[in-house]
Amino acid sequence: MQLPSFTYAPDGLAGATQPTVRRPARLTVGIANALLVQLPLAIAIVDADLGVHYWNEAAADLFGLPPAMAVDTPPLTDILASMPHLLPNQRDRIAAFVRDAMEASNRGEPKSFLRVSLGRDRRVGLQVRGIDARKWMLIIDDGRMFGTSARSQGGHGDAWLDPLTGLSNRRHFNQMLREMTEASASVALLMIDLDRFKSVNDTLGHGVGDALLCLVSQRLARETREEDLLARLGGDEFAILVSGGGSAETLGDRVVEILSRPYVVEGQLVHIGASVGIARFPDHGATAETIMRNADLALYDAKGGGRRMCRMFAPAMAEQAQTRRDLEIDLRRALTLGELSLVYQPQLNVATQTLTGFEALLRWKHPVRGSVLPDVFIPVAEEIGCIAALGEWVLKTACEEATRWRAPLTVAVNVSPRQMENTERLVRAVDTALAASGLSPDRLELEITESSLMAKTEGVLAMLHGFRDRGIRIAMDDFGTGSSSLGQLRAFPFDKIKIDRSFIAGLDHRAGNCPGPVADAAAVIRAIAAIGNRFGMTTTAEGVETAEQAAAVGADGCTDIQGFLISRPVPPSKIDALIRRYNTVNA
Ligand code: C2E
Ligand code: MG
Ligand code: MG
Fold it and tell me: Does residue 572 have a cis bond before it (omega within 30 degrees)?
């Protein structure tokens, strides 16, 4: 089945060549016949009852008609009905248009024009002209005369096309989706979004970006059938309307796979990925708008699930989206409503068995939701752009509270990669926090993650060196979870490496009969500790819960431990008791 669509375009002929059949002085029947038959314009003659008296080769060709039909003057409606690629409501609209246009022509009104879209690159224009009071000529142009072709330049066709890729544009896509849903045809909508396209565009330039988009469209075009509609909705967003909808999931997986293969653009090897969200009509919504929104939700879910994925819409996604919107609203208010607080988790030096400092961890107590975990709300804060404000509050509060501790231990503050993007603001936040609290800079430690250094821009490194020059310590948090771990250690002289707790949890299999993770985790911990010791960095094992783990990481060379074994994160009021317990000699 093909996907047709059409619009009324009363001014569709403005400026275009008017197709007229002139009658030369000595036109023989043979010549007239030859003219009509061979004209690259589909023509049919219809009567007042929509009986079709004649059609030429082009019409037969275009609409897949036989050279002759069983009845002499087959009704136009039957011919339309025999066209498999037309939907019922489209047949009705074509018939209605023809009737209206016939009446209008009898009243001497200007000719109107109907645009019909058949499948991917096939668009035709339809016009009705009066021959006499009882006969009309139906002129169907496949683009060569009225400029409706997908390939025509500067004509009306351009309004439906994406100029860069030659695919359908958002307007055409919207129209088709609306037509399909109004006609109750089952259809699946695939929303496709490229992963990492923006960084290619930013780093390699718009020329490469444009060329890449064209390669992407070519790969997509090879995967779609003639009866599917492939569109570029804008930017790096593409969509496919799969008529029938049957194989949508297979197609979605395939799209993710083929778009993730490397590209060669202007001699350079480029890697991107793609995420796909699918919604089906009518299963996932009653209107085109709902289907769009739900396919978007599925896409959002696919991206959240780690990208390079294809996800089918599920009603739970709509609920999640609502929950998420509520969370956003509440989070924006949390700061002003005083719902945030800090808890502190001690860090212990293995050799001296004394505390060296505390890590400040953010807590959000919502009157209705209860305690919301940072793993839930920090990513949301990062996404909606309020992480900088939250981070400023954390810095200010942590520095201020640390001045009241009974011993001058270090306070470690987590810094989001998002905060590192605006170096000026972060420097100002640190300055303000230190100045307002009077905390000595050498008591402040900033925990950054590997992803903060991904870009390794000069500005970020300069900022970190600036901090260190003032005595502020820099720790690498969650080490080992990023993609280019060891390389990161050379980018900057860190004071401390915090080995991610997944490695420490991985040690637990040591006694069991599951050698894989054991050997791996222990080897990683040993290697990191060795590197740390060599460069004079502190190596902290995170998430140490048991005495066995503490003994193991100590044996593997870690200098410090942090975890439930020493203490869970505690409110400020409990800090002095912990310091007293561990550091009595020093405190
Ligand atoms: P993180 O910086 O790696 O913090 C350590 C997390 O491990 C904390 O979770 C802590 O409660 C937990 N933890 C400590 N010891 C153990 C243990 O023995 N076993 C287990 N299973 N977990 C342990 P929390 O407080 O839920 O924080 C989670 C993450 O949220 C933090 O990971 C950090 O990335 C982020 N975060 C927390 N506070 C802030 C903040 O103020 N700013 C920013 N940007 N991120 C924060
Ligand atoms: Mg941390
Ligand atoms: Mg950590």
Answer: no
508 lines ligand 1 (CB under 6 A): no
Average pLDDT, integer, range 33-58: 81
Tokens 């870009």, residue located: 455
> Residue 4 pLDDT more than 90?
no
Query: 539 forms bridges with which residues in the sheet?
Result: 497
Q: Tell me which H or E stretch contains 33.
A: helix 29-38
Query: Does 497 or 56 have the greater pLDDT score?
Result: 497
Distance of CA 293 to CAs 261, 277, 281, Å? 28, 10, 12
Contacts with 284 (C-beta within 8 Å, 6 or more apart), sequence order: 290, 291, 294, 313
Number of the ligand 1 atom closest to the C-alpha atom of 564: 18
The span from the CA of 335 to the CA of 324, in Å, is 18
Question: What domains can you pick out in the chain, each with its CATH number?
Answer: 26-141 (3.30.450.20), 161-313 (3.30.70.270), 323-584 (3.20.20.450)
Reply yes or no on whether the pLDDT at 1 is more than 60.
no
Ligand 1 pocket residue status of 506, Cβ below 6 Å: no
Answering whether pTM is above 0.70, one says no
